[in-house]
Amino acid sequence: MKRIITVIIAALLAASLAACTGPVKPAEPTDKPVETEQVTDAPATEEPTEEPTAEPTAEPVVDNDSYYTKLEVGIPYEADIDLDGAPDTIVINNVREGEYDNDYTITVTRACAPDKPLKYSMTHCYDVFAWVLDCDKDDNTLDVVFSYDYDSDDWTCAAIRMKADGSDLVNFEDYMAIPEIPASFSGEQGFVTYTRFDILGTHDLSAYFTVDDSGFVFAKGGEGLTGPFSVYSYPVYEGEDYSTLTLLREMEVYPVDENGQRTGTRTVPVGDTVTPVLTDGESFAVVRLSDGTLAEIDVEVTTGDDWGIFINGVNQDEYAEIPYAD
After folding, report:
1. What CA–CA distance (Å, rounded) separates 15 from 234?
2. Shared-domain flag, residues 200 and 280
3. Residue 225 domain flag
């Protein structure tokens, strides 16, 4: 009898176990992550995107251990100008848009002095270009350098930087232009600027400049022969060079070697040509003779009522037809 009861109990237990486990399907919990993946894909458009926004501008360009970034009108840029660890804000604003010209302001607001922003105003301008630069790795400050053009395509170059004692921002300007800054900019090499001279013709001459407490200063000479001084380079044109002058009067010149040292004297005859190459803007110029020889000439520039440019003591207008700008 006990044996029969035991068999019946075993049968009932087996039936009961089958009844409990029947509805539970192991596949169900493993299917749930699939549903989660479908739900995750659905609201993807609601998630924040990584598209660039209007503020601040792009990351600065770093090249050859140098720092610069170009500023855009109306877009604030954050940079630690005074290198105190807190981001400062620089912004160019067009405060008046005219039919032919505009007024701009550049505002630099330091994080440590938010109530004392420095504003630089540019009136009746056509264009303005500006950059944040590190012109001197040792002065613990960045520089805001900008260039703008106005009446008769004249250009002014200005800069905002820290005082030497770090107490405040200052600004200064000079008659130069910076149409662009090359990717090879560095604090040692400087950046290319253009300024106008009338030596041997009216030209926009280029030179490498940088910024220090005294303002804009030469960083190095131009390409090719530089001589013992920092110099401006005359523009080089393809094809016929209108800066080449045909002499109406013989000219005494001083051929120079590869180090810029004078090696003697030479007289260039009437009818021969000279092409300006380099100048310091005040005391000498280097010219290329028709045979390719490089030679220096002595220059003197006078101002005021006695304005004139003299070569070897003779007004340059006596040597050739000088192409002055209108």
Report:
1. 104
2. no
3. no
Beta partners for 286? Answer: 278, 296
Cα separation, 302 vs 250, whole angstroms: 22
Sign of the alpha-carbon torsion through 122, 141, 186, 61: negative
C-alpha–C-alpha distance, residues 154 and 225, integer Å: 29
Residue 57 dihedral angles phi and psi, to the nearest 5°: -70, 180
Q: Are residues 203 and 304 in the same domain?
A: no
Same domain, 198 and 158: yes
The rounded distance, in Å, linking the Cα atoms of 312 and 190 is: 33
Per-residue pLDDT of the chain (326 residues; tens, 9 = 90+): 434 434 443 444 444 434 333 333 334 444 444 444 444 454 444 454 444 444 544 444 444 345 678 899 999 999 888 888 899 999 999 999 988 889 999 999 999 999 999 999 998 888 888 989 888 777 778 899 998 887 666 789 999 998 878 788 899 998 888 866 665 576 667 788 888 889 999 988 888 888 888 888 887 655 544 454 578 888 877 656 678 999 999 999 999 998 888 999 999 999 999 999 999 888 999 999 999 999 999 999 998 888 899 999 999 999 999 988 76
> How many Cα neighbours within 13 Å face the side chain of 2?
0
CB-side neighbour CA atoms (13 Å) of 138: 3
114 lies in some domain: yes
- For residue 30, which phi and psi values (nearest 5 degrees)? -75, -20
Locate 198 and state its tokens: 């009338």
Domain count, the chain: 2
Element (H, E) at 130: strand 127-133
Q: Which domain holds residue 215?
A: 61-220
